[in-house]
Each structure stands twice: as C-alpha cells, then as structure tokens.
Write a structure and sequence with these properties.
With about 210 residues, this protein is mainly alpha-helical. The chain folds into two domains: about 35 residues, no CATH class; about 120 residues, no CATH class. It has five helices and two strands; from the N terminus they run E-E-H-H-H-H-H. Strand 1 and strand 2 form a beta hairpin. Helix 2 runs antiparallel to helix 5. It is elongated and about 80 Å long. The chain starts with a strand and ends with a helix.
Length: about 210
C-alpha cells in the first residue's frame, strides 16, 4: 500500500521511511490505516419515526410504512397498535455516547458525526414544517403538531448540549447525561404525538369508516 505524507501529500513507496518530496518522516502504515478508517461517517436519510435508513427523498418509509411526504393532510397510515414506542433515534445517540465513554471514539470524531446528524435532522424538520404549513394539517391535528414540534425542539436542544461537550475538552460527562435525558423526553413527546395521530385515525374509522 502506498504511503501518503501528512505534510505535503506526496505518495511514497510502502517501505519508505521519509518522504521523497519534503524529507519529513513518514507515519507508520498502521497509523495511516487508522486515520483512513476514522473518516467521518456520512449518514443516509433516515425515517424520523422509526430511525431506519430510507432512500433520499422517499415519500414512504418501507420499514414502518409511514407516509413521509404527501399533499393530503390525512395521508399518514398509523400502526395498528396504539402502544408502539419508537426509540431508534434515541438509541443511536445513546450508543454513540457510550462509545465515547469507552474511548472507542474521540470527541473530535463524535463532533463530526454530530454535525452531519444535525444537518440531516434539521433538513427533515424543515421539510415537515413546510408540509404542515402547506397542507393545512394543523387545522385537523393542532395538539399532535404542537406536541411533536415540542419534542423535536427538545431533541435539537439536546444535540446542542452534546455539541458543547464535544467541542470543549473541559466539559464534564454530566453534560451528556443531561442531554440524553432531554433527548429521551423529546422522544417521548414525539411518541405521544404519534399516539394522538393514531387515536384520531381510530376515531375517524369508528365514526365514519374513513380509514
């Protein structure tokens, strides 16, 4: 495997000890491989309801069957059970925090991952806000929308707390504990919003056979 000089970027033979271009000492091959493997992960688009990967721009999640994009304010099929709790997104953050605690990743790696996740979630949030505004769904489900948006804001505040920890070496791990608790509270509010949605749909089906 060719070695790349970290100082000038020149390629060198596998057995070279110093760079042929700038004469700087080359890092061991193992260190270079470690650096390559630690490149920031690029997350795929993910369903905000179940946390599974979905195709970019997908209108419907193939896992939980939730309609993600539609002009019909009532066009969101709900799971049959009224007691379904979605924790995939929270579990993803909790798992990453645990890796940080165990020393499996650095604060810098955590920060890079967090930046990408934040951008992805903010873009999704903006799309849903636009959908609610253009579809008139708030007229039908103001309680659901208010509860869900409050949960999303809790989630975003928790991510900002995590970012503060990641970018400041002197910040204590207790900040992450508080962030995870806030994130859990936000997740519960999002689940409550989905329960409200399911109750609303069940009522429509019972009264009018709409569904």
């Amino acid at each position: 495997m060719m070695q790349v000089c970290f100082f000038c970027g020149s390629a060198n033979s596998p057995d070279a000890k110093v760079c042929h271009s700038c004469s700087q000492e080359l890092a061991p091959v193992e260190e270079q491989s470690s650096e390559e493997n630690s490149a920031p992960e690029v997350p795929e688009d993910e369903c905000p309801f179940c946390g599974n990967n979905i195709e970019p721009g997908a209108e419907k999640c193939p896992h939980c069957q939730t309609i993600l994009m539609s002009d019909d304010p009532l066009d969101r099929p709900a799971p049959k059970s009224h007691e379904v709790n979605i924790t995939g997104r929270y579990d993803e953050f909790a798992g990453r925090v645990q890796k940080l605690r165990n020393g499996e990743i650095t604060r810098e790696q955590f920060s890079r991952w967090l930046d990408q996740i934040q951008r992805s979630l903010l873009n999704q949030r903006d799309r849903y806000v636009e959908l609610i505004q253009t579809s008139g769904y708030y007229e039908y489900g103001s309680k659901e929308v208010d509860t869900g948006m409050t949960g999303i804001l809790e989630f975003e505040e928790a991510m900002e707390m995590m970012k503060l920890f990641a970018d400041n070496d002197e910040t204590d791990f207790s900040v992450l504990d508080a962030a995870l608790q806030k994130m859990w509270d936000g997740n519960e509010m999002c689940n409550e919003a989905m329960r409200i949605n399911r109750d609303f749909r069940a009522k429509l089906e019972e009264d009018w056979g709409y569904m």
